[in-house]
Design a protein that fits this description.
Number of helices: 11
Strand content: 5-15%
Helix content: 25-40%
Shape: globular
Order of helices and strands: HHEHEHEHEHHEHEEEEHHH
Distance between the termini: 34 Å
Protein backbone atom coordinates (compact mmCIF):
# COMPACT_ATOMS: atom_id res chain seq x y z
CA UNK A 1 0.00 0.00 0.00
CA UNK A 2 1.16 3.54 -0.74
CA UNK A 3 0.20 6.42 1.49
CA UNK A 4 0.82 9.97 0.28
CA UNK A 5 2.69 8.41 -2.63
CA UNK A 6 5.37 6.89 -0.39
CA UNK A 7 6.06 3.12 -0.36
CA UNK A 8 6.40 1.42 3.05
CA UNK A 9 10.17 0.89 2.73
CA UNK A 10 10.70 4.65 2.36
CA UNK A 11 9.19 5.65 5.71
CA UNK A 12 12.46 5.33 7.61
CA UNK A 13 14.30 7.94 5.47
CA UNK A 14 11.30 10.24 5.85
CA UNK A 15 11.32 9.95 9.65
CA UNK A 16 15.09 10.44 9.71
CA UNK A 17 14.76 13.57 7.60
CA UNK A 18 12.27 15.01 10.09
CA UNK A 19 14.11 14.26 13.31
CA UNK A 20 17.79 13.37 12.78
CA UNK A 21 18.17 13.09 16.57
CA UNK A 22 16.70 10.39 18.79
CA UNK A 23 15.97 12.79 21.65
CA UNK A 24 13.90 14.97 19.31
CA UNK A 25 11.88 11.98 18.16
CA UNK A 26 11.15 10.83 21.70
CA UNK A 27 10.17 14.31 22.86
CA UNK A 28 7.74 14.55 19.96
CA UNK A 29 6.49 11.03 20.66
CA UNK A 30 5.76 11.93 24.30
CA UNK A 31 3.96 15.13 23.27
CA UNK A 32 1.72 13.29 20.82
CA UNK A 33 1.10 10.48 23.29
CA UNK A 34 -0.21 13.06 25.74
CA UNK A 35 -2.55 14.29 23.00
CA UNK A 36 -3.79 10.78 22.29
CA UNK A 37 -4.36 10.30 26.02
CA UNK A 38 -6.49 13.46 25.83
CA UNK A 39 -4.28 15.43 28.19
CA UNK A 40 -3.71 19.16 27.55
CA UNK A 41 -0.13 19.04 28.79
CA UNK A 42 3.16 18.80 26.88
CA UNK A 43 6.61 17.48 27.65
CA UNK A 44 8.92 19.76 25.72
CA UNK A 45 8.95 22.21 22.81
CA UNK A 46 11.22 20.89 20.07
CA UNK A 47 10.05 22.77 16.98
CA UNK A 48 9.56 26.41 16.05
CA UNK A 49 8.30 27.93 12.83
CA UNK A 50 9.97 31.24 12.07
CA UNK A 51 8.42 33.72 9.68
CA UNK A 52 11.55 35.30 8.22
CA UNK A 53 9.31 37.64 6.23
CA UNK A 54 5.70 37.86 5.07
CA UNK A 55 6.42 39.27 1.63
CA UNK A 56 6.24 37.38 -1.64
CA UNK A 57 7.11 37.85 -5.32
CA UNK A 58 3.90 36.12 -6.43
CA UNK A 59 0.24 36.98 -5.98
CA UNK A 60 -1.55 33.65 -5.77
CA UNK A 61 -5.29 33.93 -5.28
CA UNK A 62 -5.33 31.13 -2.70
CA UNK A 63 -2.70 32.79 -0.47
CA UNK A 64 -3.45 35.74 1.83
CA UNK A 65 0.09 37.18 1.70
CA UNK A 66 -0.48 39.54 -1.25
CA UNK A 67 -4.28 39.42 -1.32
CA UNK A 68 -6.18 39.64 1.96
CA UNK A 69 -3.52 39.91 4.66
CA UNK A 70 -4.12 42.96 6.87
CA UNK A 71 -1.15 42.87 9.26
CA UNK A 72 1.99 44.83 8.51
CA UNK A 73 4.62 43.44 6.15
CA UNK A 74 8.21 43.13 7.22
CA UNK A 75 11.41 41.14 7.63
CA UNK A 76 12.60 39.55 10.85
CA UNK A 77 15.67 41.29 12.22
CA UNK A 78 18.90 39.39 12.65
CA UNK A 79 18.94 40.23 16.35
CA UNK A 80 15.48 38.75 16.91
CA UNK A 81 16.35 35.59 14.99
CA UNK A 82 19.59 35.20 16.93
CA UNK A 83 17.76 35.70 20.22
CA UNK A 84 15.20 33.01 19.34
CA UNK A 85 17.98 30.52 18.66
CA UNK A 86 20.16 31.48 21.64
CA UNK A 87 17.45 31.92 24.26
CA UNK A 88 15.60 28.70 23.45
CA UNK A 89 18.28 25.99 23.49
CA UNK A 90 15.72 23.18 23.86
CA UNK A 91 14.45 23.75 20.32
CA UNK A 92 15.89 21.18 17.93
CA UNK A 93 14.05 21.97 14.69
CA UNK A 94 13.73 25.35 12.99
CA UNK A 95 11.37 25.85 10.04
CA UNK A 96 12.24 29.15 8.39
CA UNK A 97 8.89 29.56 6.67
CA UNK A 98 5.42 30.78 7.53
CA UNK A 99 3.68 33.23 5.22
CA UNK A 100 5.73 34.78 2.44
CA UNK A 101 8.67 33.62 0.33
CA UNK A 102 11.68 33.06 2.63
CA UNK A 103 14.24 33.37 -0.18
CA UNK A 104 13.45 37.09 -0.30
CA UNK A 105 15.06 37.63 3.11
CA UNK A 106 18.57 39.00 2.51
CA UNK A 107 20.01 37.15 5.52
CA UNK A 108 18.27 33.80 5.03
CA UNK A 109 21.48 31.91 4.29
CA UNK A 110 23.13 33.38 7.39
CA UNK A 111 20.08 32.34 9.45
CA UNK A 112 20.32 28.77 8.20
CA UNK A 113 24.05 28.67 8.87
CA UNK A 114 23.65 30.10 12.38
CA UNK A 115 20.92 27.63 13.33
CA UNK A 116 22.91 24.78 11.78
CA UNK A 117 26.02 25.72 13.76
CA UNK A 118 23.88 25.60 16.91
CA UNK A 119 22.90 22.02 16.13
CA UNK A 120 19.37 22.71 14.87
CA UNK A 121 17.68 20.88 12.03
CA UNK A 122 16.76 23.54 9.46
CA UNK A 123 13.96 23.48 6.91
CA UNK A 124 12.08 25.86 4.65
CA UNK A 125 9.32 25.91 2.06
CA UNK A 126 9.76 27.93 -1.12
CA UNK A 127 7.92 28.61 -4.37
CA UNK A 128 11.35 28.04 -6.04
CA UNK A 129 10.80 30.82 -8.56
CA UNK A 130 14.05 32.55 -7.54
CA UNK A 131 15.93 29.37 -6.64
CA UNK A 132 18.87 29.95 -8.99
CA UNK A 133 22.17 28.07 -8.92
CA UNK A 134 23.94 30.56 -6.64
CA UNK A 135 21.14 30.54 -4.10
CA UNK A 136 20.88 26.75 -4.26
CA UNK A 137 24.59 26.33 -3.59
CA UNK A 138 24.49 28.73 -0.65
CA UNK A 139 21.50 26.98 0.93
CA UNK A 140 23.13 23.58 0.65
CA UNK A 141 26.51 24.77 1.95
CA UNK A 142 24.82 26.57 4.87
CA UNK A 143 23.54 23.19 6.05
CA UNK A 144 19.87 23.26 5.05
CA UNK A 145 18.37 19.91 6.03
CA UNK A 146 14.98 20.02 4.30
CA UNK A 147 13.82 21.94 1.24
CA UNK A 148 10.12 21.76 0.43
CA UNK A 149 8.92 23.14 -2.91
CA UNK A 150 5.30 24.17 -3.43
CA UNK A 151 4.03 22.88 -6.78
CA UNK A 152 0.36 23.15 -7.69
CA UNK A 153 -0.25 20.08 -9.84
CA UNK A 154 0.96 20.00 -13.46
CA UNK A 155 1.94 22.75 -15.87
CA UNK A 156 -1.58 23.99 -16.61
CA UNK A 157 -2.81 24.19 -13.03
CA UNK A 158 0.50 25.56 -11.73
CA UNK A 159 0.61 28.45 -14.20
CA UNK A 160 -3.06 29.23 -13.61
CA UNK A 161 -2.64 29.34 -9.84
CA UNK A 162 0.84 30.85 -9.56
CA UNK A 163 1.06 33.04 -12.68
CA UNK A 164 4.61 31.80 -13.23
CA UNK A 165 6.25 29.68 -15.92
CA UNK A 166 6.15 26.00 -14.95
CA UNK A 167 9.21 25.15 -17.02
CA UNK A 168 11.31 27.66 -15.06
CA UNK A 169 10.09 26.20 -11.78
CA UNK A 170 10.83 22.68 -13.00
CA UNK A 171 14.32 23.67 -14.14
CA UNK A 172 15.11 25.33 -10.79
CA UNK A 173 14.03 22.28 -8.78
CA UNK A 174 15.83 19.74 -10.95
CA UNK A 175 18.99 21.86 -10.89
CA UNK A 176 18.81 21.94 -7.09
CA UNK A 177 18.52 18.15 -7.01
CA UNK A 178 21.45 17.81 -9.40
CA UNK A 179 23.62 20.20 -7.36
CA UNK A 180 22.69 18.46 -4.09
CA UNK A 181 23.80 15.15 -5.55
CA UNK A 182 27.00 16.58 -7.03
CA UNK A 183 27.99 18.08 -3.68
CA UNK A 184 27.17 14.86 -1.84
CA UNK A 185 24.92 16.83 0.52
CA UNK A 186 22.18 15.31 2.67
CA UNK A 187 19.50 17.97 2.03
CA UNK A 188 16.11 16.23 1.85
CA UNK A 189 14.01 17.52 -1.05
CA UNK A 190 10.21 17.43 -1.11
CA UNK A 191 7.54 18.46 -3.58
CA UNK A 192 4.33 19.60 -1.93
CA UNK A 193 1.00 20.26 -3.59
CA UNK A 194 -1.63 22.48 -2.01
CA UNK A 195 -5.05 20.88 -2.35
CA UNK A 196 -8.06 23.04 -3.23
CA UNK A 197 -10.65 23.16 -5.99
CA UNK A 198 -8.30 24.29 -8.78
CA UNK A 199 -5.73 21.60 -8.06
CA UNK A 200 -7.95 18.66 -7.12
CA UNK A 201 -8.15 17.23 -10.66
CA UNK A 202 -4.34 17.23 -10.92
CA UNK A 203 -3.36 15.16 -7.87
CA UNK A 204 -2.39 12.01 -9.75
CA UNK A 205 -0.58 14.03 -12.40
CA UNK A 206 1.44 15.76 -9.68
CA UNK A 207 2.46 12.47 -8.08
CA UNK A 208 3.38 10.92 -11.42
CA UNK A 209 5.50 13.93 -12.39
CA UNK A 210 7.52 14.23 -9.19
CA UNK A 211 7.59 10.90 -7.35
CA UNK A 212 10.84 9.78 -9.02
CA UNK A 213 12.49 13.20 -9.09
CA UNK A 214 12.60 14.19 -5.42
CA UNK A 215 12.83 12.38 -2.09
CA UNK A 216 9.18 12.75 -1.09
CA UNK A 217 5.92 14.01 -2.59
CA UNK A 218 2.86 14.81 -0.54
CA UNK A 219 -0.30 16.88 -0.27
CA UNK A 220 -0.92 19.92 1.90
CA UNK A 221 -4.62 20.69 2.35
CA UNK A 222 -5.44 24.36 2.07
CA UNK A 223 -6.58 25.83 5.36
CA UNK A 224 -10.31 26.56 5.64
CA UNK A 225 -11.20 24.66 2.45
CA UNK A 226 -12.90 21.32 3.05
CA UNK A 227 -15.75 21.30 5.53
CA UNK A 228 -15.44 18.09 7.47
CA UNK A 229 -16.31 17.15 11.00
CA UNK A 230 -13.32 17.38 13.30
CA UNK A 231 -12.22 13.91 14.31
CA UNK A 232 -9.27 14.67 16.58
CA UNK A 233 -7.48 17.51 18.33
CA UNK A 234 -4.97 19.34 16.13
CA UNK A 235 -1.55 17.77 16.61
CA UNK A 236 0.27 21.08 16.06
CA UNK A 237 -0.86 22.30 19.48
CA UNK A 238 1.28 19.54 20.99
CA UNK A 239 4.10 20.07 18.51
CA UNK A 240 5.05 23.59 17.48
CA UNK A 241 4.94 27.34 17.98
CA UNK A 242 5.24 29.95 15.23
CA UNK A 243 7.04 33.27 15.59
CA UNK A 244 5.92 35.98 13.17
CA UNK A 245 8.48 38.36 11.68
CA UNK A 246 7.91 40.98 14.42
CA UNK A 247 8.24 38.49 17.29
CA UNK A 248 4.55 37.78 17.84
CA UNK A 249 4.04 34.15 18.86
CA UNK A 250 1.03 32.22 17.54
CA UNK A 251 0.10 28.52 17.86
CA UNK A 252 0.43 27.54 14.21
CA UNK A 253 0.91 28.67 10.61
CA UNK A 254 -2.83 28.78 9.91
CA UNK A 255 -3.09 32.00 11.95
CA UNK A 256 -2.22 34.33 9.08
CA UNK A 257 -3.30 37.52 10.87
CA UNK A 258 -1.88 36.73 14.30
CA UNK A 259 -5.32 36.51 15.92
CA UNK A 260 -4.34 33.95 18.57
CA UNK A 261 -1.43 35.88 20.05
CA UNK A 262 0.33 33.95 22.82
CA UNK A 263 3.22 36.27 23.64
CA UNK A 264 6.30 37.78 22.05
CA UNK A 265 9.64 36.12 21.38
CA UNK A 266 11.51 39.32 22.22
CA UNK A 267 10.51 39.04 25.87
CA UNK A 268 9.06 35.58 26.49
CA UNK A 269 10.54 32.10 26.61
CA UNK A 270 9.02 29.92 23.89
CA UNK A 271 9.12 26.93 26.22
CA UNK A 272 7.11 28.90 28.81
CA UNK A 273 4.58 29.90 26.17
CA UNK A 274 4.27 26.32 24.93
CA UNK A 275 3.49 25.11 28.45
CA UNK A 276 1.56 28.23 29.46
CA UNK A 277 -2.08 28.92 30.20
CA UNK A 278 -3.10 30.13 26.73
CA UNK A 279 -1.79 27.07 24.91
CA UNK A 280 -3.24 24.79 27.59
CA UNK A 281 -6.60 26.50 27.07
CA UNK A 282 -6.43 25.86 23.31
CA UNK A 283 -5.53 22.22 23.82
CA UNK A 284 -8.42 21.75 26.25
CA UNK A 285 -10.78 23.39 23.76
CA UNK A 286 -9.67 20.96 21.07
CA UNK A 287 -10.00 17.98 23.36
CA UNK A 288 -13.54 19.05 24.29
CA UNK A 289 -14.40 19.84 20.69
CA UNK A 290 -15.55 23.29 21.82
CA UNK A 291 -13.95 25.69 19.33
CA UNK A 292 -16.71 28.26 19.18
CA UNK A 293 -15.29 31.69 18.43
CA UNK A 294 -11.79 30.38 17.74
CA UNK A 295 -9.96 30.48 14.43
CA UNK A 296 -9.51 26.71 14.81
CA UNK A 297 -13.26 26.23 14.30
CA UNK A 298 -12.83 26.75 10.54
CA UNK A 299 -9.44 25.12 10.07
CA UNK A 300 -9.23 21.54 8.87
CA UNK A 301 -5.64 20.95 7.71
CA UNK A 302 -5.35 17.42 9.03
CA UNK A 303 -8.67 16.04 7.89
CA UNK A 304 -8.01 15.87 4.15
CA UNK A 305 -5.60 13.07 3.34
CA UNK A 306 -4.41 11.61 0.05
CA UNK A 307 -7.21 9.08 -0.29
CA UNK A 308 -9.95 11.59 0.48
CA UNK A 309 -8.43 14.08 -1.98
CA UNK A 310 -8.23 11.47 -4.74
CA UNK A 311 -11.83 10.46 -4.09
CA UNK A 312 -12.94 14.10 -4.35
CA UNK A 313 -10.92 14.55 -7.53
CA UNK A 314 -12.55 11.52 -9.16
CA UNK A 315 -16.00 12.73 -8.13
CA UNK A 316 -15.22 16.16 -9.59
CA UNK A 317 -14.20 14.57 -12.92
CA UNK A 318 -17.38 12.46 -12.90
CA UNK A 319 -19.54 15.51 -12.29
CA UNK A 320 -17.80 17.40 -15.10
CA UNK A 321 -18.30 14.49 -17.54
CA UNK A 322 -22.03 14.42 -16.71
CA UNK A 323 -22.51 18.14 -17.33
Amino acid sequence: MKLYGLPPNAWLPLVQSRYRRLDTFWSEFINQTLRLLRLPHVFRLTTVGIETNNTCNLKCAHCPTNTTMQRAKGFMSWQLFQNIIDQNPGIKRVYLTNWGEPLLHPQLVEMIDYAHQKGKLTALTTNATILDESTSRQLIQAGLNILKISIDGGEESFEKVRGFAYQTLEKNVLNFVKLRNALGAQTWIEASMLVFEETLPHIEQFFNLWKNRVDYVHLQPKFFTFKRKKMTACRDLWRILVVLWDGTVVPCCADAEGELTLGNATTDSLEDIFKGARMTFLRRAHLRGDLSGLLCEKCLPYFTDYHISVKRAKQLKLNQSQD
